[in-house]
Amino acid sequence: MKTLLLIFLLATPAWADLSTHAFFKHFVGTWKAAGELKGENDKLVTLTEEWTGKADGENTFLIEGTRTMNGDTQPFKWTMTHNTGTDMFEAILSGPDAAQTIRFEGNVSEVNLTLELKAVTGSGQSSITVLDSFQGEQKEVIESKVLFTGDAGQITLEGTIKHEKQKTP
Known about the structure:
Strand 1 and strand 2 form a beta hairpin. The chain has a 10-stranded antiparallel beta barrel. It is globular. The protein has one helix at 2-11; strands spanning 29-39, 44-55, 60-69, 72-83, 88-94, 101-109, 114-121, 126-135, 141-149, 155-167. It has 1 helix and 10 strands, in the order αββββββββββ. It has a single domain, classed as Beta Barrel (Lipocalin), CATH 2.40.128.
């Protein structure tokens, strides 16, 4: 029995609690963000966000807040979980309507402190990719590069959102 417990403890990652994970621990707190996404025909989407990041149990991380796009403010929520079997992260983005959900899969680099998420949308050829990376030594700025592609693989929307930490709990 002791051997089985030891094997389990050794096989379980030290960061099973996402509040202590090398990447997600820096997301804890209150944030403000702003950016622009450029679309087809040079259409510009301006975006601001206010959100809070926190661990919810050992295997879930939540990001909840409001997003204003071109003057329209809506609540949003990211629910991120780690699949220990595949070592992948799943992120569900939901909006004000429960039917408005997008499922992303991705990986975290603990070395570069980056999170890359991708969702296949539409008929299966279109997608949304988000690459989050910390800027600076203090880990209080996140740069999110966002890329939307259409069914033919063309870029339909792209840009960068800069998140700045306002408060740490």
